[in-house]
Amino acid sequence: MIVCSCNAIREQELRLAARQGHAEVEAVYARLGCEVNCGQCVPFALEIIEEESCVPA
Ligand code: FES
Asked: What does DSSP assign to residue 23?
């Protein structure tokens, strides 16, 4: 599933990047070599990042 259509970021990619320890959308996107563009994906991306930060390493 695509989370960010501007950058074609898939949910799985986002989860993996979030598990690297970044808590902010901008930092996770930067990890993927992208940046927030339209911002439409930010609420959903944040949800995913928060879910991953609850998962023990
Ligand atoms: S959909 Fe992610 S920045 Fe536009």
From this structure: -
Q: State the residue range of the domain holding 22.
A: 2-53
Per-residue pLDDT of the chain (57 residues; tens, 9 = 90+): 999 999 999 999 999 999 988 889 999 999 999 999 999 999 999 999 999 987 555
Which tokens hold the place of 21?
Answer: 């320890």
Ligand 1 atom closest to residue 9's alpha carbon, by position in its atom list: 2
> What CATH number does residue 49 fall under?
1.10.10
User: How far apart are the two ends of the chain, measured CA to CA in Å?
Assistant: 24
pTM of the model: 0.88
Choose the residue to mutate in 26, 37, 44, 48 for probing ligand 1, maximizing ligand atoms within 8 Å of C-beta.
37
How many domains, the chain? 1
